[in-house]
């Protein structure tokens, strides 16, 4: 499943600038362009004292996690992100010591492989947010490891992996998600985001994307990766000013342009993911024909027209949804993607819309309606759809 063997070697070799770049094409990064001045990072001390007190978190020893993941074996790799590789492991649920594979509690261990302050900062932010927040739609952080230069995070294992894999990977394991499951996942992820934005949590997530939505065995969606999370605006301020960090394609245009971060930036990213779910296409996909690299630019003309929305819907869910359902879902995506943040709904409104959508009766007329409208795709590219949907995209900014 995983491809971390090379990355593992890399992690144990001296850092090599530019190495492994194929793996980070759509990972989060500093999105600030030359137009923006990036404030230099503050010097961060690197000790356990930076970690907020949390009764929920366990501090692990490196050797325990090494044994739990069978020495970080390549065939234990669940995936790889910009932070490092994620390994499957087993621990005893009472003692938290390494357990025999297949026994005890299954965990996912994320191992930081990049040197430097940014990696450490994100590792710490993840602990300090996820250690304090608890919600059924947020992934559970079991604990962490800080030992010498080692930085690891230990999560509950999410059996069905990321939404990204289900939407874009082709293998016998990752069957296309049905319309109903897509809507269930959208609702779960929206609830997670609504909780983060609520007065109780008051957090801006800043990294909402399909690879950060993890699915349990029942396809319950949980948000992971809080390395970029920020406290929401305080004292009547409308936004937080930050260095522009995020993932190309998902980050809101006004945030990229100004560095002003609001909860509406997350709503925009939610719209992007909803559109990925409806179309089965990545937001940025350079393997597509010219004019189709950017999903939003490609799909928007069709989303505005009731007659044309079926031209952009994923062919793999054809016949599973009603005209009314498809229209409601695409309309919601369009609202979230409004260029002006004030025209985007808030996440409570998004949750409400998705609950109503689930309640819609999916009658038998739907198949006819869908087939009648599906003569050609938005840009007559039907033959390229299948072949182009495998590769991860190279990023490109949303704004000119
Ligand atoms: N708790 C978990 N349970 C099961 N699989 C997981 C878990 N956490 C991560 N993964 C797998 O590991 C992959 C890599 O995750 P990671 O968060 O490191 O990177 P990413 O989200 O792809 O990119 P980025 O670094 O930009 O967030 C995920 O896409 C998922 O398939
Ligand atoms: Mg992630």
From TrEMBL:
GO terms for molecular function: ATP binding; protein serine/threonine kinase activity. GO terms for cellular component: plasma membrane. Transmembrane segments: none annotated. Residues 1-50, 372-400 are annotated as: Disordered. Keywords: ATP-binding, Cell membrane, Kinase, Membrane, Nucleotide-binding, Plant defense, Serine/threonine-protein kinase, Transferase. GO terms for biological process: defense response. Gene3D superfamilies: Phosphorylase Kinase, domain 1, Transferase(Phosphotransferase) domain 1. Pfam families: Pkinase. The keyword ATP-binding applies. It is found in: Cell membrane. Its EC number is 2.7.11.1. Residues 33-46 have a biased composition (Low complexity). ATP binds at residue 110. Residues 72-357 form the Protein kinase domain. The keyword ATP-binding applies. Belongs to the protein kinase superfamily. This is non-specific serine/threonine protein kinase. It comes from Cinchona calisaya.
